[in-house]
Amino acid sequence: MNLPIYSTFLIISQVCNFVLLILVAFIFFKVERMSGADDNRGNDDHKLKRKLGKKVSDQFSGQVNELVAAALESFNVQIKSEIGKISEESMSKLRGLSDFTQAQEATIGKETQFLVANNFSKVEKELEEYKKTQMAKIDHEISEIVSAAAKEVIGRAISAAEQEDLVNKSLERAKRDKFFT
Amino acid sequence: MIQSPLDKTAFIPFSNLIVDTQDLYRMINDLTTVQRSLFKDKEGTISDKSKDFLASSLTTVFTEVEKRGLEPAGDAKQQEFVKTLIEYLKNLPVVKITLAFGPTTNFLQRINTEISNEIGNKAVLDIVVNQFIIGGAVFEYNGKVRAYTLEEKLDTAVIALIKSEGTISRKSEVSH
User: Fold this and answer.
1) Are B124 and B27 in contact (CB under 8 A)?
2) Which domain holds residue A156?
3) How many domains does chain A have?
4) N or C: which end of chain A has fewer CB within 10 A?
5) What is chain B's alpha carbon radius of gyration, rounded to the nearest angstrom?
6) CA terminus-to-terminus distance, chain A
């Protein structure tokens, strides 16, 4: 995302340098022409002009160098600043990612604990239900066994006279209930 | 066709001989034989015509009915009489009784009398012996079934006993 900004900045710097060079060259040519025009004034002035030209040239060259150096320094500073920003941003994002990961781990841990607890409770309930069902089944089976045994024993224990007496009582009950009417 | 209520009066001595379904089937079988014997152009009463093969108990009843003048004369009428008698006996109310023991004849006769009086008509007992019946009887009559036995009381007592025992044993398990 930051790469286009750097590219733009680099291009602008290059363009500035180029414009600066053109200006320097233009000034140099102007001075050269001016010195050419004054050739007729005499050889005495020639040395003076040369010195002056050289001085002006040196002065401009120094200024151009200073400007280029300043531009490079500014560029370096800005690059460093941008890199620093990117680095900081990356670090921030990494820290965020780390925090998110930790939060997720904590959430997963909590959810796992909840699920385990929930499943444990469910299994416990199922076991309780199973226990109750099995106990009821056992009670029923015991009841049937004891009942069958009791019937067998009682059936044998009742004499014929007692059987007849019980049938008579049954008949009396049926009559009271109006079963035959 | 023999007229009612005279016919019914003539049939009652026959139905009085019946206690259970075995008696009924035996009598119907005998009467069917008598019905066949009436085609032999013999003269006289039914007891005369069938005395050679008729059971003594039935001969006695026929004689009694003849003495009371309740039996018609002539083959066709006698045959109609026997046919109507068979139909009458087949339509007697049947009471099914399930008992835990094989009852004596006297006991069955007494039970039959009581039930017949209750119904207001001669009843035929259909006796079934089931050793698993506990103390009492199961009656079936007119599409209704009712058990008058000790089974229910016994089951309730057994369940109560098991529950109390179970509670005690579980309590002792918990205490241990």
Assistant:
1) no
2) 125-176
3) 2
4) N
5) 25
6) 105
Is the same domain home to A93 and A149? no
Contact B91, B17 (CB under 8 A): no
> Contact A179/B139, CB-based, under 8 Å?
yes
Non-local (6+) Cβ contacts of B84 within 8 A are B1, B2, B7, B11
- DSSP secondary structure code for residue B139 in this structure: E
Q: B112, B19 in Cβ contact below 8 A?
A: yes
ipTM value: 0.79
Distance CA B46, CA B26 (A): 18
Q: What are the phi and psi torsion angles at B155 (to 5°)?
A: -60, -45
Distance, CA of A91 to CA of A97 (rounded, Å)? 10
Domain extent listing, chain B: 6-90, 94-148
Q: Is A7 a domain residue?
A: yes
pLDDT band at A144; cut points 50, 70, 90: confident
Which positions in chain B touch A180 (Cβ < 8 Å)?
95, 115, 118-119, 139, 141
CA distance A139 to chain B (A): 7
Tens-digit pLDDT profile for residues B152-176: 777 777 777 777 766 656 556 655 5
Enter the tokens of residue B131. Answer: 């050793």
Sheet bearing B124-129, strands edge to edge = B124-129, B94-99, B137-141, B144-148
The reply to whether A181 touches chain B by the CB within 8 Å rule is: yes
Q: Which residue has the tokens 């009656």?
A: B139
Q: A110 in contact with B at a CB cutoff of 8 Å?
A: no
Three-state DSSP class for A113? helix
Nearest residue of chain B to residue A176 (CA atoms): B118
How many Å apart are CA B128 and CA B84, to the nearest integer?
Answer: 29
